[in-house]
């Protein structure tokens, strides 16, 4: 019987693979089986079973010859369905790209495959990553695995009965909800998300996993179907910080196909284990203490700050004065780039095309009406409005100036000696779908991106680390924000914090059924992250 | 006449775009002004020439035309401006299309270094200010041959600005007087080419070719007319002119049309027109969209383009990563105006001949090679090349490098002529023969056809005497003072010598004999 030791993270499972305790094919099959068991969560749009088994087989041959490619060889991974995957349908959860099979791999996908990773499938999202719930994709919403966890069910026994239980499931957050759910349910060991305003960190917080947004320019965007080119970053979702660092080590560095990537070579690295935080200075931005912040999250935030302080770190209040303008500024810049980026979806070269052929213009109009949902069309409309000659100065240029002010806020704080900022990731824990859809996508995005979004404006690295379960038994995440290109330092701090808080894993019925074989979930719940 | 002016600055098309400004063209005297997307620089109309209205009775109104050109020229490079796919003339449709060219989702533009260098070099040649920092923008419109829905260009801060091009025009009745004019260059910008639409009217289909490397030169002309001292007139844009000849004709006809419209009390509409070369006039283009708002925005996937000079070069910079303007300046070849000046100075060539020599591809090199190998006077060489050699090429529709006559052969022929081994009419015969029988040297032809001049004075003397005896009437006429009679005798002697005698020598002998 394979012990729990290997199952938690790629780091450990990699050791198990090397020692022959489990083969890549066995591992792949376990994950495929879990994907089937958790199908109702709707985390995957496409499960690439055949490809995965083939890749696992090749990996197995390498292990047998003793030629493993490294830590990721044979490790199951999942990729958000807005990264191009050669030969595998890439939909962006949109009618527009249903049936579109890219002829090339995104650079990040290629790098993972080159390391021997096994691609389990493409994960669900909001259409073209526009949303904060993973509820607005054409393939339906992603359900938060914690909705079905023992921890949540126990805490919510008193209510929910009598009502239709199925309607009480929680959202994952978004837009990388599928990737977060996939990692949380052990169907893969790491997943790629994308992060434009918080799309990796937000669902990571709601699903109790680590969600890392690297510095802008550290990881190639080539092949990532863009939302906002100047803010998009491939995100990494894992079950622990060390794993995020391993994956980052594989992905980071210059890509000749993306002119915005760093020129200097980036070496793979291992995170040091901090024992002393006394030289650290942690900043607590006062503007992040908003009235909408739930008291529970606020209290966990305070506790975390106290933890650092009690261990000798310097914890100070700092100010990011332009924070409150971030969302509206983001709205202008995001919709403008969306209007531009979506212009290529015209039904001519690829993707959906309507049946109307009276004129090219009529074909464009009907194709785009049929292909895009209301959210996408709404953003295209707004963006084109902001870019009109008569509006450009008043909206786009102003928003760019505000963006600069927001970025400067961070620069000033870091120049004052702060190493890392500590903030909440989300206002509260995940809400039920029925409640979430009471507000429209725009309102939700504006509310939910409040702590995560400014980071994208400034291109900084940030990571959401699960900290504890709320009174309802749902995960809460806290966010660390670092200096640009100090990703390693940021993750080192996050790793220390993760070790202190010892966040539990989800106790999911579907996983527990399997515990007779390998997934000793009960025990895993108390597994220390110490290797 | 617009040709030399344009030739100096062709660049781009999927590449740079040059806005030429200033200067005047033709006897008509329309000034070339400036235009750039609606922003008309005040300085752009500094040069204007007056045109007197052609209709009688309204002659008191002088018109001035303002013309600005947008020149799209293709950069000669191995791969495209923003993608690694190749550039090749007349490649099969869609055979050179990268994922980026097809605008597949997730692909990103990567700037081609060679194209940047070519743009900088063009900027230097056109005396532009090179911007050490330039930016890329997206220009949006929906069209089937624009797969991304936008074109990457340099709207806000282009790579080079404020240049000028001096050029000469031939004026006067015989076009013999050469005057120098200056065209102002507003900017040179790097711009992605769109695809090509092929309309199949029969099946009402449009086929798209995304190779994007077809036309090498395309010009849009912006034209308006006004009375000097009054505000500028409403302009029209005549699009897609693809030869210098059509460009000139289109501008002339559009100026004429606008004057005619205004003098008949009608208005000029701000519209896009095309030139119908069969009708010889411009016609409005179908423009369903009305006024386009291109919704310009910065291209977020291309960082600002930074250029350096030797002084500003960051220490330890990788030469592969940076572009040094000073290095490109060193590589700048001699510019055509300098070459022409050199020809005039060194060989006493007429300025208009220096234009012809430079305008024909390869002709300058041919000329220089002949000069190197011949003792003949440069003027003689020029005359032979422009009159005989070029005439033959044109007649047979050949390029200089396709000529069966090599520079060495022509040089040898001119040497024979120079040392009076053959007469000039014999030389022409040899030249024609060279054209026909490849591989033979002029000397071979001369000896085969016995075209050498008679060097034997006594023999020629005998022939002259014989001719005089055979034609007593002509001799008589000469003696009576008819000046044309000697020419007849010379002709007869030449005929008798099979054109192998030098007419001047014949004349000397005849005159000597008649006076004795």
What does this structure look like?
The complex is a heterodimer of chains A (531) and B (516). With 531 residues, chain A is of the alpha/beta class. Helices cover 40% and strands 12% of the residues of chain A. Chain A contains 20 helices and 11 strands. Chain A has helices at residues 4-7, 10-18, 24-37, 49-65, 107-114, 150-155, 177-184, 201-207, 241-251, 295-310, 326-341, 360-371, 374-387, 389-415, 433-436, 441-448, 453-458, 487-501, 509-512, 521-524, and strands at residues 44-47, 76-80, 118-123, 190-195, 210-213, 233-238, 281-285, 314-318, 420-424, 462-469, 475-482. Chain A has an 11-stranded mixed β-sheet, sandwiched between helices. The two termini of chain A are 20 Å apart. The model of chain A is unreliable at 1-7 and 515-531 (pLDDT under 50). Residues 1-50 and 52-59 of chain B have low confidence and may be disordered. The A-B interface holds A 83-84, 90, 92, 97, 100, 102-104, 106, 221-226, 228-230, 256-260, 263, 336-337, 339-340, 342-346, 348-350, 360-361, 364, 384, 387-389, 392, 396 and B 99, 102-111, 138, 140, 142, 144, 147-150, 206, 208, 288, 293, 295-297, 300-303, 321.
Using brief descriptors, characterize the structure shown:
heterodimer, A: 531 residues, alpha/beta, 11-stranded mixed beta sheet, 11 strands, 40% helix, globular, disordered C terminus, B: 516 residues, alpha+beta, 12-stranded mixed beta sheet, 15 helices, 19 strands, 34% helix, disordered N terminus, ATP-binding (chain B)
User: Strand pairing plus helix content of chain A: what structural class?
Assistant: alpha/beta
What is the distance, rounded to the nearest whole angstrom, between the alpha carbons of the first and last residues of chain A? Answer: 20 Å
Number of helices of chain B: 15
Average of the residue pLDDT scores of chain B: 82
- Largest interface in this structure: A-B, 46 and 31 residues
Low-confidence stretches of chain A: 1-7, 515-531
Enzyme class (chain A): ligase
Subcellular location (chain A): Mitochondrion
GO cellular component, one term (chain A): mitochondrion
Pfam family, one (chain A): Amidase
